[in-house]
Amino acid sequence: MNATSPMPTAAEIAQQEDALVFSHFDEETAIALGLALVSEARTMAAPVVVDIRTPDRTLFHAALPGSAPDNDHWARRKSNVVLRKHRASMLVGLQFAAAEKTVGADLGLDPMDYAAHGGSFPIRVAGTGVVGAVTVSGLASEDDHAMIVRVLETMLAG
């Protein structure tokens, strides 16, 4: 599947991170977010995995038709970047590319556990900071990222 979303700039992603902040986040919020992402993916017939986790707990996970076990591994690796850096995985990837650095050789992070590609976004709570990561895996990086941003914008506006 070819990417259909434009590649955001680092500044655009940083602005998204600043704007998409929860007032609170708990298990019920994770379920609502996960179901909203599943609904969006179904509308698009997107073969994705949706994963929402904290550093030590999976709060929501769904594998949609057409997704593969590899998508689960990509979701884990991208969310590990968010939970380590507290930034969107796409932003981290853009920053690494601009600095001509890689996850493995330059940062000493195992590329089997970390992937700085689009599709994982920090779950930020006002006054608290990053409490988790929401991840989509199965589309092109920019489309995984865009799906999360669209759903978060809708959810946080209502």
Automatic annotation (TrEMBL):
InterPro entries: PduO/GlcC-like (IPR005624), PduO/GlcC-like_sf (IPR038084), YBR137W-like (IPR010371). It comes from the Bacteria. Signal peptide: none annotated. It comes from Aliiruegeria lutimaris. This is UPF0303 protein SAMN04488026_103739. Transmembrane segments: none annotated. Belongs to the UPF0303 family.
